[in-house]
Amino acid sequence: MNLKRVLRSVVFFEYLTDSHIQQLVDMAGALTVKVGEILFSEGEAENHLYLIEDGRIQISRDGRHFGRQTFALLGPGDHFGALSLFYPDPHFATATAVQPTRLWILRHDHFQARLREDRELAFAVLKGMALGIRAANREIRRLTTLLDRRSRLIIELSPRPLAASPSGPPPPAG
After folding, report:
1. CATH number attached to the domain at 3-130
2. Has this prediction a pTM greater than 0.90?
3. Which residue of 1, 11, 122, 150 pairs with 53 in a disulfide if CB–CB is 3.0 to 4.6 A?
């Protein structure tokens, strides 16, 4: 695996120079986990970016109504936990090794120290974050458009008009 290439796949790092990418490579630490080992659990505040060299990681959570739900099965060249480099909020899911896995870890505290020391690095990361926000906005627009289309179809196919609920607002006067 080319760690530099994987780091470049993190949207926040798209505008980093080769020198900055090398600095991140130098900061990364290796970790090997066994099948069934949990990297972090839902609700824990974790603060590492994980880059998978070999193996598979399952990102899942226990759903109230449907049991365990898998959101992603990640493999070599994938990454997860990038937002943790900026703030250690509790995770919404659990990361579990489903194969023996070798990862590279970029730690929040090391990354934050580098950002404070190097304004060019910090500015390049900000540009990458803006790119990520733009991509997220496009995806939100796409999903809401899809939802709107499906909602209209359901209403149009409904055999009877949807009535206001008895506890809902009164009909307009007039």
Report:
1. 2.60.120.10
2. no
3. 1
Instruction: Kindly state the tokens that stand for 137.
Output: 């906005």
Coil, strand, or helix at residue 80?
strand
> Which 3 state secondary structure label does DSSP give 96?
strand
Q: Is pLDDT at 167 greater than 70 in this prediction?
A: no
Report how far residue 145's alpha carbon sits from residue 171's, in angstroms, rounded to the nearest whole number. Answer: 29
Which residues on adjacent β-strands are paired with residue 13? none
DSSP-assigned letters across all residues of 38-72: EEE-TT-B--EEEEEEES-EEEEEEETTTEEEEEE
Ranges of each domain in the chain: 3-130
Residue closest to 78 by CA, chosen among 99, 109, 108: 99
pLDDT tens-digit map of 78-134: 999 888 888 878 888 999 999 999 999 999 999 999 999 999 999 999 999 998 888
C-alpha to C-alpha distance for 113 and 9, rounded to whole angstroms: 22
- Tokens 């995806």 belong to which residue? 139
